[in-house]
Write a structure and sequence with these properties.
It is a single chain. The strands form seven sheets. An eight-stranded mixed β-sheet has the order 5-4-8-2-1-11-14-13. It has a five-stranded mixed β-sheet with strand order 16-17-18-20-19, covered by helices on one side. It is built from 13 helices and 29 strands. It has 571 residues and is α+β, with helices and mostly antiparallel strands. The longest helix has 23 residues. Bound molecules: zinc ion. Zinc ion binds next to helix 8. The site of zinc ion has 6 residues, from helix 8.
Length: 571
């Protein structure tokens, strides 16, 4: 997901104009914005509900069955902003049980569930359905059900951050429809097991639209069926495991062109879908897809979905990391809607949405969090991926400036890791602070070849898997050879930034860490009088070193995200 940035001037200007038109919308938008802006605080204080537990935990009604395959078929009624569809859910029985949890959010409703020529009974509990089989199913059995559903899905107010359906029009008045659902969950538009721990091995997405329009979803377009009622069904097949929020449909009068890039795993197909009016500028602008794949493959290893190709698809919102179908709405500008989030200028040399969302193909779609509380696995690595892109094309100094520039956006008000089992992500610091955490760790490792092999190693060893933060932390500790427990506790689970306290007296430098968690002893390079570089390993206890001459000042390696403070030593 793109960073939510509170200074989105473009959106706010257009919003202001629409506000002037209608007092009702003024009030409505004010409430919504107050909600969005205060969301982290509200989320922090709010007690969690039973619905949050059903949504965010691996309930007994989820645990007993393993997803194998989804066949999702949806007919989209654009004038009525409604959908009708089925999802055929193929699964393996891991443990004998009789009741299955399927998620579908109001106001959508399940209308029928088929199983072996019978209708199953079910009860609804808010956004969750408990579907009952006639008997307990046998362990090891491969089975499937067909879930029918219909209704008007939630309309997204501020996609992609709140999610739902966007029913928009292009400049020529043609429908321009898109889905987005990270966080809120894919059950906002289709019935599924809406938890990230379990992914289908593959998936078919069949979208029926008016004949004049095109649907672009994930994977490869297998066929188009021309229906007798004049409508068309687009069949998209995803041949790899896919996380639920990665599934998408985008409907417009798209123009399409193809290209290829010669990558680490051979020839990768690139497909581009944009609105007709943007065709000329998009052909030029989307050339950055080549640079993106090249740089990210260098750092992270082969693009993880060669079989499904890579697409950039224009949408009526900022953008999202939909798997093999990166959606794009950055208005063909450099940076983030024309602005550089790092404030250094380096962010204006490329398109934030193309690079950031594509980095999620590795960190989100290939290596995926099991619980959204660990969303840093997606966002910290994707934001760090921006810096690695900068490094690949503009050099290490540019990358350091870019990452250090991002520190302005760090709030340190809430930990990066959220609350487990209730579908609660952590602080937005997972973007800028997460990138700084990774760069700080790289500086500690002090071996770029090893660092790159750790990044590529995680992509290989966690290939197409859902993981926990513990797995990531242990992997990085094991493969860097460092003790990192306190390091990750400090930056992921605490809001304090380590402070290097020091005192200078003639030739002597005394120093220690404060503001740290137990056991935090990260070494750091300091420079004495802009001349001599010294590695020190501060702890909570005062230590001292003696220089050859009187010390006037010290500086700390800017790559390391700590603060320094000259103090009077207390004995
Ligand atoms: Zn993101």
């Amino acid at each position: 997901m793109a960073l939510f940035h509170s200074q989105q001037t473009h959106s706010f200007q257009s919003l202001y104009l629409s506000m002037k038109k209608n007092l009702y919308y003024l009030i409505l938008y004010s409430i919504v914005f107050a909600f969005i802006i205060n969301m982290p605080l509200i989320g922090y204080a709010q007690p969690f509900t039973h619905q949050d537990t059903l949504r965010g935990s691996i309930t007994p009604e989820r645990e007993w069955w393993d997803l194998h395959y989804y066949d999702l078929a949806i007919d989209v009624d654009i004038p009525n902003k409604s959908i009708t569809g089925t999802n055929t859910i193929y699964f393996t029985v891991l443990k004998s049980a009789q009741v299955m949890q399927i998620d579908l959010q109001e106001p959508l409703a399940i209308t029928q569930v088929d199983y072996k020529n019978h209708h199953l009974t079910y009860t609804r509990e808010g956004n969750v359905y408990h579907i009952k089989f006639p008997n307990a199913l046998t362990t090891g059995a491969h089975d499937h059900i067909v879930v029918h559903y219909a209704g008007n899905p939630v309309v997204a107010v501020h996609p992609p951050w709140d999610g739902g359906l966007t029913w928009s029009k292009d400049t020529n008045g043609n429908p321009f429809v898109a889905t987005s659902c990270q966080g809120i969950g894919s059950s906002i538009w289709w019935p599924c097991k809406d938890h990230m721990y379990d992914e289908p091995d593959s998936m078919l997405i069949r979208i029926t639209t008016p004949a004049s329009l095109t649907d672009v979803s994930n994977g490869r377009l297998r066929q188009i069926d021309y229906l007798s009622n004049g409508r068309k069904t687009f069949q998209w097949f995803v041949s790899n495991p896919i996380n639920n929020y990665g599934v998408n449909m985008n409907i417009a009068r798209y123009v399409h062109w193809v290209d290829t890039v010669h990558g680490e795993k051979g020839v990768l197909d690139l497909d581009f879908y944009v609105l007709p009016d943007n065709y000329e500028k998009a052909r030029e602008h989307f050339k950055d897809a080549h640079r993106t794949i090249k740089a990210l493959e260098y750092w992270f290893g082969p693009y993880p979905f060669y079989e499904d190709g890579f697409k950039l698809v224009e949408v009526p919102y900022l953008g999202m990391e939909h798997q093999s179908s990166v959606t794009y709405g950055n208005q063909y500008q450099m940076g983030y809607l024309g602005r550089d989030l790092s404030g250094t200028g380096w962010g204006l040399k490329w398109d934030y949405i193309i690079i950031h969302e594509s980095a999620h193909e590795w960190w989100a779609n290939n290596v995926t969090y099991k619980d959204i509380a660990d969303m840093w696995i997606h966002e910290s690595f994707a934001t760090y991926g921006e810096a690695l892109f900068v490094e690949y094309y503009y050099g290490p100094q540019a990358a350091i400036e870019y990452i250090v520039g991002y520190r302005e956006d760090i709030g340190n008000k809430k930990p990066i890791i959220g609350t487990y089992n209730v579908n609660q992500e952590g602080s937005g610091d997972m973007y800028p602070k997460g990138a700084n955490l990774l760069h700080t760790l790289r500086t500690w490792v002090n071996d770029d070849a090893k660092w790159r092999s750790v990044l590529r190693g995680m992509q290989k060893d966690f290939y197409h898997q859902t993981v926990t933060t513990q797995q990531v932390e242990e992997y990085m500790a094991q493969h860097t050879g460092l003790e990192l427990k306190a390091f990750f506790n400090q930056y992921l689970r605490d809001i304090r930034i380590p402070v290097l306290e020091y005192q200078i007296k003639d030739k002597k430098l005394s120093y220690r860490y404060t503001n740290i968690v137990d056991g935090f002893t990260m070494p750091v390079h300091i420079t004495i009088d802009n001349a001599e570089k010294v590695k020190i390993t501060p702890t909570v206890k005062w230590q001292e070193i003696t220089h050859t001459s009187n010390i006037r000042m010290i500086s700390v390696d800017p790559s390391v995200y700590i603060e320094k403070n000259m103090v009077e030593k207390k004995k």
